[in-house]
Amino acid sequence: MEENRYTVEQLITGFYIKYNRLTELINAAYSNSIRYHNVDLYIDLYSVLKNLYSGNIWTYKSTNGLDIASTIINMCAHYRTFFKKRQIKNTRIFLIYGLNCPDANKVFVENYNGKFVQNYRMKPTVTNSIENNLNIVDLICQYLPGIYFFDIGKAEVSSMIYKLVTTIPSIPDCTKIVITKDILPLQLLSEGYVDAILKPHKVSGADLSDIVTIDNLWDKYCTVYRNCKIPEECVSTKYLSNIMCMTSVPERCMYTVYRVKKAMELINLAIQNKYIQPDTTVTQFGLNTALSILEVPNIGNLELRYRAICPKFQSQYMLPSEKPEYKKSVRLIDLEDISGLKDVVSRYFDTNPIQIDRL
Length: 359
Known about the structure:
Strand content: 5-15%
């Protein structure tokens, strides 16, 4: 039984999109866009490590104590090398780990992300292993130029991406890309905070990874994330957060109120009656006001669901409660210390090789 299990390294390398597939995706997504010379890459480590908590035992075996740390760092090398070959001047990488279950969200939505929380509580050994490895990731990232690690506790990863995008100094001619399997970061795309979402997906050795941009957002949301038909009359993508809270987010144990088609019909009805604008971001409170005038049922708890998943709201209120140090600004640490880097590598990665020359 032990021999048949995947290793932790195999789990994490599933997030290494193969270069030929990555080339196809990036070329397709940026075929008509202005040439970019820099990349900000946000990697969702919750998506990377979540499956370590699946099942009743260790689903993945660990070959040694620091294979999580080394494989995460090598993932940075994998993507930085790809963009370097495309003559990108600078690739900043932001590694973000959060449990996506803020305590306050349980007030908004009963049993919020409850399935994961239950598995998390059942596996303290897994948690200890992840925490030990991420402490090493945090340490070495301080010595690696342009690679940053953030442990945000129970907060939503999408809230930290929003925080970073809106507070750290921007780089000219820079595109912002998120690598995640999670659905909530799509909201950052709909609001224009990021330019693309890469969704790693491999089946039996075949790389079926996908990319989502503002141009194909409704197509991918319906067909890839929700397995439903695309409504004939779609609303603006700026209404994505509203659609999500009005329909379902099973990834957070938020179950169906309306189907996607019906939710879009209700928003279109509010637009036609001129209660809201067709291409303007509207909070769920504002939309609920319009829907109540139209006597639409089942809207009572939608505002609370919206608060639970909205990256901007979560970043402003839930993230600071989890991590008070991020209440105002975020500090990026770049230690120019070659001897310090060599010491960390020799101490922790002697038997867990990292591709330092590619970083």
